[in-house]
Every structure is written in structure tokens, then in C-alpha cells.
């Protein structure tokens, strides 16, 4: 699907109308386990993705996708509850219109969250990992089909060093360990094989998941600063007993999500507005 400027501009206009004027400079994209942040948004204007022509229509099954404009504590934020994954249709650009709308609306910082499997013995279920960098192992790009020189995006500091420093300092002040690591993006939706997990470890990845990287690429292309957090829901395939399944991801996410959201809210309070 081609996202055109008309759809982006119409989405920005709708957001401004629904939020009653000025829009926050920080947006947060919620992944599995992080949905609790939506309940902490105060004074929220709620906008369904369906009202925003540049936004994706999410699959059936209860996740319609909605956006909240309000405050978490004193920090004005736009919270995106719902992400369309590349594994749903094969389209790595599924969130292109959403990210371009945020950029056109004046957002400067995108905070991403996801659920991921751990590749590292020192990172266990319930822990949160701060992304220092990523491996695009799906080798897909949301910028395929774009034209012009700006598509050749520099990803040297894909995850903003200053924002990462702030996040680490906030976690430290809270007495919450927050480890930095490398996130490997695989297309999914199947989990990895044990051999793939050994490969990912050898490649230097610390966690593996099925999202986030396309949105980081889109955000950097649009000039946004990116910060990203993974909630570890399981040891990757073969690293612990038991079978993997989405139910397990969701149940660990439900148990550990509250603490992760506490940390996220604290980090948001310390980000440059
Ligand atoms: N692999 C890929 N994606 C995931 C995993 C995993 O083990 N856990 C949560 N998302």
C-alpha cells in the first residue's frame, strides 16, 4: 500500500482536531506486555486508528488500534496502542503512514516497546532490555519503493545515545537494573529453531523479536530520535525447558508488564520534552 502525503496530512489534521490543538513531542508505541501504559494516560483524547487514513487497520481479535493524546505524569505524550507487524501480511511498511503522521504532527521522539525472547543467560523473563542497536535479520525494509536520496538512511545512532543515557540513569535511580543489548529482528510469526537461536547468539544478539526494527528505520528516516525497550517474556527456543507459544508471551507479559510500565513511566518523565 502506498501512503501518500494526503493521507498523512488528513491524519495530522484529525489528530489536531481531536486533541484540541498542540500535540506532544513524544510518542510511545506499545508492544505486547506494555498495554498498561494506556491506563496511565491522563486527560486523554482517544482516536481510533480507523479515523486516521494513514494508519493501518489492525486485524480482528480485539486489537482495533487506538491512539491516546494526553499526559503520563507531567509529560505530554501520544500513545499508540496497536502495531501492525510485518509477519501479518509480509509488508514491512505497515506502520509507515503512522510514523510519518507522527513526524508531520511535530513528534520528535519515538519510544518503542516490545516483547522479546532472551538469548543471554543474564537476561530472564520479566527483565527489561534497552536496545543499544539492532540486527535486521529479516532483511526487509519499510523504505523499499521510496525514492530520493533520503531513503539511504544512516543508522549509526539508530537508538539515540543521549536518550539511552537518560533511560539508564533513570533505571539506576529507581534501583531497577536495565541492561543494554542488541535486538535481532526476525520476521516470524513462527518462533526460532534451536539452531537459529545459536546463530543469533553468535551474531551478537541479546534478544530476539518480531517487531520494532521497521518502525525504527521509518522513524530515523523521518528524523525522529528513537528509544526502545524489550520486555523479556521467555528464554529463546532451546535455552530453557518448556515449549514456546504466544499464550506464554502474553501471560509473562501480563505478570511482568506492571513493573515494566512503572519503569517506562519514570523514563518518560525524564526525557527532554
Ligand atoms: N522469539 C521471537 N519473538 C519473540 C520471542 C521469541 O522467543 N518472545 C517474544 N517475542
Mean pLDDT figure: 93
Stretches where pLDDT is under 50 for at least 5 consecutive residues are none
Instruction: Indicate the percent of residues in helices.
Output: 25-40%
| Overall spatial form | globular
Task: Give the helix/strand class.
Answer: alpha/beta
Strand content: 15-25%
**Distance linking N and C termini:** 33 Å
Walk me through what this model shows.
The protein is α/β, with parallel strands linked by helices and 273 residues long. The chain contains 7 helices and 9 strands. Strands 5-8-7-6-9 form a 5-stranded mixed beta barrel. Strand 3 and strand 4 form a beta hairpin. Helix 1 packs across helix 3 and helix 4 packs across helix 7. The longest helix has 25 residues. The protein is globular. The mean pLDDT is 93. The protein binds hypoxanthine (HPA). Hypoxanthine (HPA) binds next to strand 5, strand 8 and strand 9.
Short description:
The chain is 31% helix and 24% strand. It has 273 residues and is α/β, with parallel strands linked by helices. The protein has a five-stranded mixed β-barrel with strand order 5-8-7-6-9.
Task: Record keyword descriptors for this entry.
31% helix, alpha/beta, binds hypoxanthine, 273 residues, five-stranded mixed barrel, globular, 24% strand
Amino acid at each position: 500500500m502506498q501512503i501518500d502525503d494526503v493521507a498523512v496530512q488528513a491524519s495530522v489534521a484529525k489528530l489536531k482536531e481531536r486533541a484540541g490543538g498542540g500535540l506532544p513531542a513524544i510518542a510511545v508505541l506499545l508492544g505486547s506486555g506494555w498495554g498498561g501504559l494506556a491506563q496511565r494516560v491522563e486527560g486523554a483524547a482517544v482516536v481510533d486508528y480507523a479515523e486516521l487514513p494513514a494508519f493501518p487497520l489492525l486485524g480482528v481479535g480485539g486489537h482495533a488500534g487506538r491512539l491516546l493524546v494526553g499526559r503520563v505524569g507531567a509529560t505530554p505524550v501520544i500513545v499508540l496502542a496497536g502495531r501492525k507487524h510485518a509477519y501479518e501480511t509480509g509488508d514491512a511498511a505497515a506502520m509507515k503512514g503512522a510514523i510519518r503522521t507522527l513526524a508531520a504532527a511535530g513528534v520528535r521522539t519515538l519510544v518503542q516497546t516490545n516483547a522479546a525472547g532472551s538469548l543471554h543467560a543474564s537476561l530472564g523473563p520479566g527483565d527489561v532490555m534497552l536496545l543499544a542497536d539492532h540486527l535486521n535479520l529479516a532483511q526487509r525494509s519499510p523504505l523499499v519503493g521510496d525514492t530520493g536520496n533520503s531513503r539511504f538512511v544512516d543508522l549509526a545512532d539508530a537508538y539515540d545515545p543521549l536518550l539511552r543515557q537518560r533511560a539508564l540513569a533513570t533505571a539506576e535511580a529507581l534501583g531497577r537494573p536495565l541492561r543494554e543489548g542488541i535486538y535481532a529482528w526476525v520476521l516470524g510469526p513462527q518462533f526460532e529453531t534451536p539452531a537459529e537461536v545459536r546463530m543469533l547468539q553468535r551474531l551478537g544478539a541479546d534478544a530476539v523479536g518480531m517487531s520494532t526494527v521497521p518502525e525504527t528505520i521509518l522513524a530515523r528516516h523521518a528524523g525522529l530520535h528513537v528509544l526502545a525497550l524489550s520486555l523479556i517474556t521467555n528464554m529463546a527456543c532451546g535455552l530453557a525447558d518448556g515449549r514456546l507459544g504466544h499464550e506464554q508471551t502474553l501471560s509473562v507479559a501480563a505478570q511482568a508488564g506492571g513493573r515494566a510500565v512503572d519503569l517506562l513511566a519514570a523514563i518518560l518523565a525524564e526525557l527532554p520534552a
